[in-house]
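Feature request, filed as a ticket because there's no other form

It would be nice if the structure record came with a short human-readable summary line next to the tokens. Right now we just get the raw output. Example of a typical job, pasted below so the devs can see what we mean:
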Amino acid sequence: MVLILVAVEEELSSKDLPSFQIHYTGVGKINAAIKTLEIIKPGISCKEVYESLSKNLFSKNVKSNVGRMGHGFGLQLTEPPSIMIDDNTILEKNMILALEPSIEIENDLILVHEENILITQNGNRLLTSRTPKELPVINV
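Raw output as currently delivered:
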């Protein structure tokens, strides 16, 4: 399996969003993650994390079809808990999570941004480093 992680800096154009129009950018996903990181600490639930991501990603008129926006990981790439509306797991110190603000731009086409975090005594710490604003161009 190969994972390719890319941060998007520019706003998507209407032609990139064929099914519907929304005010959403790759930067919006990153901003949603940043705002949600401010509330993540021991004692809050996965449901609260999901609600924060949703609130920061979507307007009142646009709802997400994405069921999960993050998960735990350790020995497996994806494992419990899940950042979902129905996961009431309480975050604890030393948990490691993948925070994945996601949006479905058309049927079966989902954009995902990921931050890996460690839950600390009083908050969280990023385990991933920020992508530089200027990405190298690879000619294929």
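Something like this underneath would help us a lot:
Strands lie at 70-72, 79-82, 96-99, 102-106, 109-112, 115-119, 124-126.
The chain has one domain: 25-126.
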